[in-house]
Predict the 3D structure of the following.
Amino acid sequence: MSWRRVLYVLFVVVVAGISALSGVLAGGLAVYRVMSRSVPQAVSSQAVQAQPAPTDVVPLDFSTTNIETTITDAVAKVGPAVVTVVGVIPGQVTFFGRTSDQQVSGSGVFISKDGYVLTNNHVVDGTDSVVIILADGTQVPVKIVGTDRYADLAVLKADTQAPAVANLGNSDNLKPGETVIAIGSPLGDFKNTVTVGVVSATGRTIDTGEGYNIEGLIQTDAAINSGNSGGPLVNLAGEVIGINTLVVRGSGFGGTIAEGLGFSIPANTAQAVAEQIIQKGFFSRPYLGINSQPITPDIAAAYRLPVQWGAYVTLVGSGTPAARAGLQQGDIITRVGDIALDAEHSYTNALFAYKPGDQVTLEVVRDGKTLELQVTLGETKS
C-alpha cells in the first residue's frame, strides 16, 4: 500500500472518532438537561445523595391482605345479629273463593340474648305466621310479642337464644353528615346487604295518611329498599342508632322522582317501645275515647267551619274519659294541653305527647264559643 493510501485511512478513522465523541457528549448533555429539570435548582445531585434517610418514616407494610376498616368493623359487630323476617298473610274469602296466601318480608335485629327481635309493625301486620332467617341461613319460627303501629315497631320472640346481639346507641347524639350503615335484606332475597351513607337530617316528620304523623325520624341517604324495613341503621361505633322504616321516592307533584330519601325510627324511641312491649306485651298509649275527623283550611272553607285547624268529634264513646269530661259530638278540639292543633301537630300526635293518667285541658269550640274541658286520659293498647 502506498504511503498516500495509509494517510487517507488514518484521516477517516480520526474523523469518525471525533464524530462519535461529539455524539456521546451531545447525548450526555441532553440527558443531563432532562434530569436537571426533575431536580430543584436549589439542591444539587451531590446534596441529594448526601442527605441521610429520615428516621421517622415507617415503611408501608403490604404483607397482610386482611385490612380492617372502621366500616367493616362496625358491620362485623352488628351483621350477625341481623335477620330476615318472613311472614304469611292468609288469603281472604271472597265471592269468587279464597284468595292465595301472601308472603311478605322485611328485616330485623336481635336486641336481647333471650331471642327478642326488633322490626317494623308493617312488616308483620296481618300475618298469621312468622319466621326469621339468621345470617347463616338457619330458619327459626318466632311469635309476635307486641306491636305499636303509631311508631311502626314490633317485637318478636324466637324460641332459641340469639346468635349475636346488637347494642342500641343514643340517637339523640346524631348529627347531620355523620356516616351511617344500613343492613338488611332488600327484596327479601339479598340477605344482609350493607349500604353506606350519611345522616341527612334529624327530627323529620312523615304524614302516614292515616290521621297521624311519624315524628322525630332520622333521614339518611344510605340505600334503603323494600325488604330493608326493620333492619338496623348503624353508626361507626357499631351501635344501632335507628330502625329503617320507609323510603320516599317522590313528592307527588308533577311526577317528581327523588333518590336517597330514607327514614329510620330513632333508637331511643325504639328502645322505649320495645322495653314496654317486652314487659307488658303491648305499648301503652293515652286514650280519650272519641272518633274524629281532621280539619284543614280546605275542609274549613268547604264546610264554613269556625277554625282552620282542629279535630271534629264524630263520636263520643260511652263511659270514656271524653264522656266524663263532657265532650260532645260536633265539638271541635283545637288544643290538647299545651299543643295547638295545626299543620305540624295532628290530634293524635298531640294526644300522644302525654301519658295515660295525665290530666290535660282540652280547648274546644262548641256553637261558636271556646270552652276548656279537663280530662284524665285513659290507657289503651296501641
